[in-house]
Design a protein that fits this description.
The chain has 16 helices and 15 strands. By secondary structure, the chain is of the alpha/beta class. 50% of the residues are buried.
Length: 429
C-alpha cells in the first residue's frame, strides 16, 4: 500500500491510496491536476467557487492585507477595518432586515453551531431556559461540528459518533404541519427551526410550493426562532443574493459561508436580525462567551470584501438567473435515460438522481458515473450514493453547460453498457 499522510475528509481511507487526484491550478470553471489534465469543475469544488478559479484580484486583496495586518483577534473590544466593513455590508444586505449584525466564523459548520448556541442563549436571557429544542428537516445537511452533526437529517452523517446534542427533533422535509406537531407536543420548549432554502447535500431538493410560507407562519405564531442555513444558497447561487429572497423568507438568524469568499479564504458568518441582537446586546445580558480564534480574521474579511465586489460589479447573480433555464434545458433531457429517475434544477444548482432500481443491482452506480465523468474531464460529486451534484461557478458559459450535459450522457451510457442486461432489465420493471 502507498503510504499516505493526508487524512481525507468524507473518505474511506482504505481505498484512497493510488487514487488521489492532486489539483494544482485553476482558471475560470476549470482546474488542472499534477499530470496536466484539465477538468470542468461542475461542482465549484464544494459548492463554493462562485466567481470561478484564478481570480488574481482576490489573491491581491489577501496579499495587501497581509502586508498591513495578516491576523488579529476580535475578542472583547478589538476589531480591524476589513472585519468592520464586511460586517456593515453583510448587515445592510441581510435578509434578517434592519438592525442586523454579523458574527464571523471560519466556515459553515462553525456558523451553524454559533446560530444554534445563539438561539439557546436568546431564550436563556429572555427568561425561558426550557426552550432548548431545535427542529431540523430530514435530509438536511448543516455542517459537521457538534450541533450541525446532530441537526443533520442525513443519517450516515449523524450515526457512529454517539449522542452529541440531544435536544434535536427531525421532521418531514416538505410538510410544515410536521413542525406544528413538534411545537404542540413540546409546548414552550422549542427554541428554533433550522432549514436550508433548498436542501443541498441531501440531494438538491427545492421546497414544495407554500412550504416556507407555512413554516414562517408557525414560527411567528409560536415565537420560534427561524434559522436559515444559506451556506450553499447564499451570494447568488439561486439567482438572488440570498435564497431567502427567492422564497420570501424573513429569518431571525442566517448562516453563511462558501460563497461569501468563493472559497478563497476560510470565512463564514451568522447574520442576526434585530430581534436576537437587541436581546443579546442589551444591558445585563452579559458577555457572550463564544467565539473563534479566527472570528473576523482581517485577511479572510479582506478577501470576502473583494469577492463581494466581483459579484456586484460583474452582476453574477443576474447571470445565474440568465443561465438557470440553460442549465435546466441541458440537464432535463437526462430524465429519459435508463439510469436516471429525476433531474432537479434551480438557479445554478442541480441534482441528477440515478435510478433506484438500478442502484439496487449496482450499489456503487453513482460512484461509477462520477468516475466515468472524471475520466472524460468533468467533475461532479456523488451525493449520498443516489444523486449527482451540479453547482458550477457563475462564470460558466452556455457552451460549457452543453459540454457538461454531453459528458454526463456519455458517462451514463457507458455505465449502462457496463452493467449490461441488468440495467435494461431493471428499467423494464
Amino acid at each position: 500500500m502507498t503510504e499516505l499522510e493526508l487524512w481525507h475528509p468524507f473518505a474511506d481511507m482504505a481505498g484512497v491510496a493510488g487514487h488521489e487526484v492532486t489539483v494544482v491550478s485553476g482558471e475560470g470553471c476549470w482546474v488542472t491536476d499534477e499530470q496536466g489534465r484539465r477538468y470542468l469543475d461542475a461542482s465549484a469544488s464544494l459548492w463554493y467557487c462562485n466567481v470561478g478559479h484564478g481570480r488574481t484580484e482576490l489573491a491581491d486583496a489577501a496579499a495587501a492585507q497581509m502586508r498591513r495586518l495578516a491576523a488579529y483577534h476580535t475578542f472583547d473590544v478589538f476589531t480591524n477595518p476589513p472585519a468592520r466593513e464586511l460586517a456593515r455590508r453583510l448587515a445592510e444586505s441581510s435578509p434578517t432586515g434592519p438592525g442586523s449584525a454579523a458574527f464571523f466564523t471560519s466556515g459553515g459548520s462553525e456558523a451553524v453551531d454559533t446560530a444554534a448556541k445563539l438561539a439557546r442563549r436568546y431564550w436563556e436571557v429572555r427568561g425561558q431556559p426550557e426552550r432548548r429544542i431545535l427542529v431540523a428537516r430530514e435530509g438536511a445537511y448543516h455542517g459537521m461540528a457538534a450541533f450541525g452533526t446532530s441537526l443533520a437529517g442525513i443519517a450516515p452523517n449523524r450515526d457512529g459518533w454517539g449522542p452529541l446534542v440531544r435536544e434535536v427533533v427531525h421532521v418531514d422535509a416538505d410538510d410544515p404541519e410536521a413542525l406544528r406537531e413538534v411545537i404542540e407536543a413540546h409546548p414552550g420548549e422549542v427554541a428554533g427551526f433550522v432549514g436550508e432554502p433548498v436542501r443541498g447535500a441531501g440531494g438538491v431538493y427545492p421546497p414544495p410550493p407554500g412550504y416556507w410560507e407555512g413554516v414562517q407562519a408557525l414560527c411567528r405564531e409560536h415565537e420560534v426562532l427561524l434559522i436559515v442555513d444559506e451556506v450553499v444558497t447564499g451570494f447568488g447561487r439561486l439567482g438572488a443574493e440570498f435564497g431567502c429572497a427567492r422564497f420570501d423568507i424573513v429569518p431571525d438568524l442566517v448562516c453563511v459561508a462558501k460563497g461569501v469568499s468563493s472559497g478563497y479564504a476560510p470565512l463564514g458568518a451568522v447574520l442576526s436580525g434585530a430581534r436576537v441582537r437587541e436581546v443579546l446586546w442589551s444591558p445585563g445580558a452579559g458577555a457572550l462567551r463564544h467565539g473563534y480564534t479566527y472570528s473576523g480574521h482581517p485577511t479572510a474579511c479582506a478577501v470576502g470584501l473583494a469577492n463581494l465586489d466581483i459579484l456586484e460589479r460583474e452582476r453574477l447573480p443576474e447571470r445565474v438567473r440568465d443561465l438557470e433555464p440553460v442549465l435546466s434545458g441541458r440537464l432535463g433531457p437526462l430524465e429519459e435515460h435508463v439510469l436516471v429517475d429525476e433531474v432537479r434544477t434551480i438557479g445554478l444548482l442541480a441534482g441528477v438522481e440515478l435510478s433506484a432500481s438500478a442502484r439496487t443491482s449496482a450499489p456503487d452506480l453513482t460512484e461509477r458515473v462520477t468516475r466515468r465523468a472524471r475520466e472524460h474531464g468533468v467533475l461532479v460529486r456523488n451525493l449520498l450514493g443516489h444523486t449527482l451534484q451540479i453547482s458550477p461557478p457563475f462564470v460558466i458559459t452556455p457552451e460549457e453547460l452543453a459540454q457538461l450535459a454531453d459528458v454526463l450522457r456519455t458517462s451514463l451510457d457507458e455505465v449502462a453498457d457496463e452493467l449490461g442486461e441488468r440495467s435494461h432489465a431493471v428499467r423494464a420493471t
